[in-house]
Each structure stands twice: as C-alpha cells, then as structure tokens.
Amino acid sequence: DVKVTQSSRYLVKRTGEKVFLECVQDMDHENMFWYRQDPGLGLRLIYFSYDVKMKEKGDIPEGYSVSREKKERFSLILESASTNQTSMYLCASNPGERRREGYTFGSGTRLTVV
Amino acid sequence: AQSVTQPDIHITVSEGASLELRCNYSYGATPYLFWYVQSPGQGLQLLLKYFSGDTLVQGIKGFEAEFKRSQSSFNLRKPSVHWSDAAEYFCAVGPTGNQFYFGTGTSLTVIP
C-alpha cells in the first residue's frame, strides 16, 4: 500500500516562528499536495507539486511556501506563523498519469499557533 | 467551474439503519468521483471511486455509491450502519489538471 507519512501529529508553535511540516511518500508518486482543513470549510488547497522543484499555488497560498527537493518529500513552510494558521494540515499524493486513483492522504498534522 | 456540494452538514442515524449521504457536483466533462472517510484526528481514507463504466460502485466497509449524470449526483449509501461508521465523509470531483475538489464534508453520528 502507498504510504504517506507526516512527521508530526501535533505541533505547538509560537507566533512569528518559522514552521516546517514534512511529508514523505513511498510509492514514487509524481504529484503531492498540501491542504488545510478547518471546520465548515472542508479541505482547501495550499500548494501542490507535480515534479521535483516544481510547485503550483493552490487556493490559499498566502503565508505559506513549499519545497520539493526530492520526489518523495514535500515540505510546507510557514514563514512566520500566525494564530490564524492554527489548523489541521493534510498532505496527499497522487500518481500523476493514474489520477483516477485519487489521493492517498497522510494522517495529518494538527498545528496550534499560540 | 468545478465544485462539490454536500448539503448535509451533520446526519444522525441509529445503528442498523440505512444511510444515504448526498453529493452534488459541477464539472464540465465526465468526472472522476470519490468518497473519503475521516475518523477523528486522522487523515482521509478512500472509500470508493468512479471514473467510468457501471454507475453503481462498491467500496470498502460495505459502502456503495451511484453516479447519476442527469442529476449530477454521486450519493453514498450503506444498508445497515455500524457504530464504527461514525466519522466525517467527504465527496471529491475532478480532475482539473492534477487537482481534485472536495466538498465541505458530512459528519455522521451513530446512536445505539
């Protein structure tokens, strides 16, 4: 089975800190995604990447950046954390040409910014 | 533009009762459609998917869904709900490029 691993389940950070959320997938998927999930708003796409060093903005990229130096790893960076970035963050991957397979998600990182 | 509507924010059913969760979509061509389930504090798990062929698709955990093109719907059903089915359910449609779009979810409570 495809596995998507997010390095932290829970994080607590202070306002203004630079925060790194890490995601690793083990099935050679081309596409990787970062979503944030908030009650009543569903999943909103922050950034995605369709290849190493390639990235595309999603619907809510402000305040975030990403890095994909290796195919299996996709990092989400909060440049200066703010309380309104307190949320559940979900990483997902997808095999590109076989998009009909949908996404495989990680278990999520619940980030609290204080 | 593509979009997904899950009109029911929250549903409560008794254990053993049947379940139907609604999903309506807007998409310019024949879509790929998915249902995912999310248990508390977890990521999303794929329940089932449709991309072509038989419009009634079977998934894991006894779930099924029917694609109705005329109604732009992909409703999820289960004939007899178990307490362990309590979770949040998301419908998704796509793709547009590499991206799929999710509904806002339906929270399911199961009462004994």
Description:
The complex is a heterodimer of chains A (114) and B (112). Chain A is built from no helices and 12 strands. Chain A has 114 residues and is an all-beta fold. In chain A, the strands form 3 sheets. In chain A, strands 2, 5, 6, 7, 10, 11 and 12 form a 7-stranded mixed beta sheet that branches. A 3-stranded antiparallel beta sheet of chain A has the order 3-9-8, with no helix packed on it. In chain A, strands 1-4 form a two-stranded antiparallel sheet. In chain B, strands 2, 5, 6, 10, 11 and 12 form a 6-stranded mixed beta sheet that branches. In chain B, strands 3-9-8-7 form a 4-stranded antiparallel beta sheet, with no helix packed on it. Helix content of chain B is 0%, strand content 55%. The mean pLDDT of chain B is 93. The interface between A and B is medium-sized, with 28 and 23 residues.
Total helices of chain A: the number is: 0
Radius of gyration of chain A: 13 Å
* Total strands of chain A: 12
Distance between the termini of chain A: 37 Å
> Low-confidence segments of chain B, ≥5 residues, pLDDT <50?
none
- Approximately how much helix is present in the residues of chain B? under 10%
Q: Which geometry of chain B do the CA atoms define?
A: globular
Helix fraction bin of chain A: under 10%
Low-confidence stretches of chain A: none
In DSSP terms (H or I, runs of 4 or more residues), the helix count of chain B works out at 0
Task: Using the CA coordinates, give the radius of gyration of chain B.
Answer: 13 Å
Measured distance between first and last alpha carbons of chain B: 41 Å
> Could you tell me the strand content of chain B as a percent range?
over 45%
Short description, anyone?
The complex is a heterodimer of chains A (114) and B (112). Chain A has strands spanning 4-6, 10-13, 19-21, 23-25, 31-38, 42-51, 54-57, 64-70, 73-78, 87-94, 104-105, 109-113. With 114 residues, chain A is an all-beta fold.
